[in-house]
Backbone:
């Protein structure tokens, strides 16, 4: 599909200042609902600074959040850089990779500065104009004169210039300190809100410590206390400051939040929604994301899912099943019996069918060196277990090895996708 450049942004006149050299638009209003469109959409309330060569956008705390160059050497006019809450730069690619939407369920492909499992994408951070913004944006801002502007715009520009790369790094470190850890992986479903989540750690560690897993830590599973979680909420409110109004999504960490006690989960969600004032957010609707183990999904009672379903938000629970083949589970060192994997899949299907506000999604691994039993047993679940295509219960496929030629991985993925009766996408591992 042809992609066009568009600006889905409104701005109150009187808050815009323009000269031949620059324009500043304060408190622009972007889209207020997450959508999937084939042109760039800007969400939330933000301010925009445009020079002859660059376009920068800042959140309500005067922190840079998007940037792109307007010069001819910028890779593509509808591509841009985003700075995350964890202070990573992510480059959103628009095209050039046929079938991005079919592969990941989104029109734009996030590219990262750190190693991940992505099998599509290029090396945008090697492009000089991208590198210039990522490493030198404070110098670019410093060169813009703040004199000769109306007072309000001078003040805003000076404030923006004060927040340099070191300040933003310290703020990200503070975030990791509040959670007690950095979020090393977000659920794949967080793509539905462009990964704009507030992270709240309600439990640490995981149950299985699978040998193949690169994101696990050594902590045994344990739930946090109510007091700890309330403390995080207070500090996160303070950290997000004026920009809190742009958030309507929560990530409950870390690797198996669903295994936490039922009341802890429900109380946390209700407290967070109230304290973060999600109902007063500029962004419409409310979202919650968490990971779950097979054990947690099976153990939780139907009455609990019923209570989750009544929370007036959309919930995504992502379960790492990986495989239901005994030989494959043994090879990857996942100590979950195949019958439990199958039972968790059935439980997830039942939750998806019974609760309109909850989607349970599933992760499976893919690799051409896995036993044939892996492929066959996975197809029995994702094809044979339903008689017609279903819209919930997304299957995310994650390549086991990161070093295989992407053409081959993509070929295998599309083969599985065409057979699956559940929506199927590649799992792009993104941290916060
Ligand atoms: S795959 Fe999940 S359960 Fe297994 S080690 Fe990694 S985080 Fe833990």
Residues:
């Amino acid at each position: 599909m042809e992609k066009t450049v568009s600006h889905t942004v409104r701005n109150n006149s009187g808050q815009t200042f323009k000269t031949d050299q620059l324009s500043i638009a304060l408190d622009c209003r972007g889209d207020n609902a997450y959508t999937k469109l084939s042109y760039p959409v800007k969400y939330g309330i933000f301010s925009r600074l445009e020079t002859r060569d660059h376009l920068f956008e800042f959140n309500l705390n005067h922190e840079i959040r998007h940037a792109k160059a307007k010069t001819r050497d910028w890779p593509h006019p509808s591509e841009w850089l985003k700075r995350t809450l964890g202070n990573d730069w992510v480059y959103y690619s628009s095209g050039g990779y046929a079938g991005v939407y079919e592969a990941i369920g989104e029109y734009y492909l996030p590219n990262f500065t750190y190693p991940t499992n992505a099998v599509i994408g290029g090396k945008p951070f090697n492009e000089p104009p991208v590198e210039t913004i990522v490493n030198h944006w404070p110098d670019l801002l410093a060169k813009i004169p703040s004199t000769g502007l109306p007072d309000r715009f001078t003040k805003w520009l000076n404030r923006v210039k004060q927040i340099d790369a070191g300040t933003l790094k310290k703020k990200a470190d503070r975030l990791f300190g509040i959670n007690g850890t950095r979020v090393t992986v977000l659920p794949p479903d967080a793509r539905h809100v462009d990964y704009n989540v507030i992270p709240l750690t309600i439990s640490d560690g995981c149950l299985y410590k699978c040998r193949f897993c690169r994101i696990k830590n050594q902590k045994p599973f344990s739930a946090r206390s109510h007091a700890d979680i309330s403390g995080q909420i207070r500090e996160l409110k303070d950290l997000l400051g004026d920009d809190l109004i742009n958030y309507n999504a929560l990530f409950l960490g870390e690797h198996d939040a669903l295994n936490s006690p039922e009341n802890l989960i429900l109380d946390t969600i209700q407290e967070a929604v109230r304290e973060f004032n999600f109902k007063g957010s500029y962004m419409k609707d409310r979202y919650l994301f968490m990971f779950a183990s097979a054990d947690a999904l099976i153990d939780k009672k139907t009455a609990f899912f019923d209570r989750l379903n009544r929370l007036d938000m959309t919930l995504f629970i992502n379960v790492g099943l990986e495989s239901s083949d005994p030989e494959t589970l043994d090879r990857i060192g996942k100590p979950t019996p195949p019958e439990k994997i199958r039972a968790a899949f059935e439980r997830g299907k039942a939750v998806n069918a019974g609760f309109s506000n909850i989607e349970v999604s599933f992760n499976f691994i893919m690799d051409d060196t896995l036993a044939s039993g892996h492929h066959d047993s996975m197809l029995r679940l994702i094809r044979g277990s339903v008689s017609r295509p279903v819209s919930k219960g997304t299957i995310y496929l994650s390549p086991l090895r990161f070093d295989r030629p992407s053409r081959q991985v993509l070929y295998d993925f599309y083969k599985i996708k065409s057979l699956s009766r559940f929506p199927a996408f590649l799992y792009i591992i993104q941290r916060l």
Remarks:
- The first strand starts at residue 16 and ends at 18.
